[in-house]
Design brief:
Blueprint: H1 2-14, H2 17-32, H3 37-64, H4 85-91, H5 95-98, E1 102-107, H6 113-126, E2 131-135, H7 136-148, H8 152-160, E3 164-170, H9 176-190, E4 195-200, H10 207-211, H11 214-224, E5 228-233, H12 238-257
Parallel strand pairs: 1-4, 1-5, 2-3, 3-4
Helix pairs in contact: 2-3, 3-6, 7-8, 7-9, 9-11
Bound molecules: adenosine-5'-diphosphate and magnesium ion (MG).
Length: 258
């Protein structure tokens, strides 16, 4: 009893909750299997490390603030056959984040841009990277509020702590001059330092409409496209046709395989 209390106190001060929870069970198991002390110690510490990894991953996903749970495994590439699947899979290795490069998903509404951006962000979190999710207008608003409250530096520091910033829905709503300038500032901050993934319904040629300034947009695109993987998503809206199309394709498959 006394040794358990001591062990509990040691585990608490060393912050080893899994060791505390699992040591009894593992000790019994190792005893039954005639495995020595070293094996026991290794097993119990491995469990602690694994639990920590899982917890940290969940924390990173929570802190990123994704609006939904989407995974690559749920993405049906057959619904959008023209997409460059290899490029998508390459992005999901997250190498581009380590190289501080950018990714852009561009296409009409409903083709799965947000789905892939969320899935990519979650994958980065699982790989130990720190991610933050914004909508384009949300980020512009955060900047505006931070300026009002004179805490822009704080916001920028929060951004700089991340490895990847995801910006969803650039182009749906014109940003206005302040919004555009703020986003321009944001992109300058990130340039070659923090990866950015963005989704947009507008090809680059139409970006001046969003930012409202040809020169500013030119400078921004110059930086963004310096090192960027663009995934063009041409297809019909999954929201409108997804279910119907998939059923049709399932019926067609035996012929396709012939
Ligand atoms: P976008 O951001 O391009 O407007 P979304 O990613 O929001 O489109 O997609 C709309 C809905 O359809 C979401 O619920 C998404 O999960 C789903 N969806 C889109 N494309 C696919 C796909 N190829 N496979 C599976 N689900 C998809
Ligand atoms: Mg979207």
């Amino acid at each position: 009893m006394k040794s358990h209390v001591l062990l509990e106190s040691c585990c608490k001060s060393l912050k080893l909750p899994t060791v505390l929870r699992e040591y009894g069970r593992l000790a019994r198991q190792c005893g039954e299997e005639n495995r020595g002390y070293a094996a026991f110690l290794q097993n119990v510490l491995e469990l602690e490390v694994e639990q920590r990894r899982i917890k940290a991953m969940a924390r990173r996903i929570k802190e990123a603030g994704f609006p939904a749970e989407k995974e690559l495994s749920q993405f049906d590439f057959r619904a959008i056959p023209k997409v460059n699947k290899k490029r998508v899979l390459d992005l999901f290795t997250c190498e581009f984040i380590r190289k501080r490069e950018c990714g852009v998903f561009v296409g009409q509404p409903g083709v799965g841009k947000t789905h892939l951006a969320i899935a990519l962000g979650r994958e980065a979190c699982r790989r130990g990277l720190r991610v933050k999710w914004f909508t384009a207008t949300g980020l512009a608003t955060e900047y505006a509020e931070a300026r009002e409250e004179r805490v822009v530096l704080k916001l920028e520091r929060a951004i700089e702590r991340r490895d990847l910033i995801v910006i969803d829905e650039l182009g749906y709503v014109p940003l206005g001059q302040n919004g555009a300038e703020n986003l321009f500032g944001f992109f300058s901050k990130c340039y070659e330092r923090i990866s950015v993934v963005l989704t947009t319904n507008l090809p680059f040629s139409q970006w001046p409409q969003v930012f409202g300034d040809e020169r500013l947009t030119g400078a921004l695109l110059d930086r963004l496209t310096h090192r960027v993987q663009v995934v063009e998503m041409k297809g019909e809206s999954y929201r409108l046709t997804g279910g119907r199309k998939r059923k049709g394709e399932e019926k067609k498959q035996p012929h396709e395989a012939e």
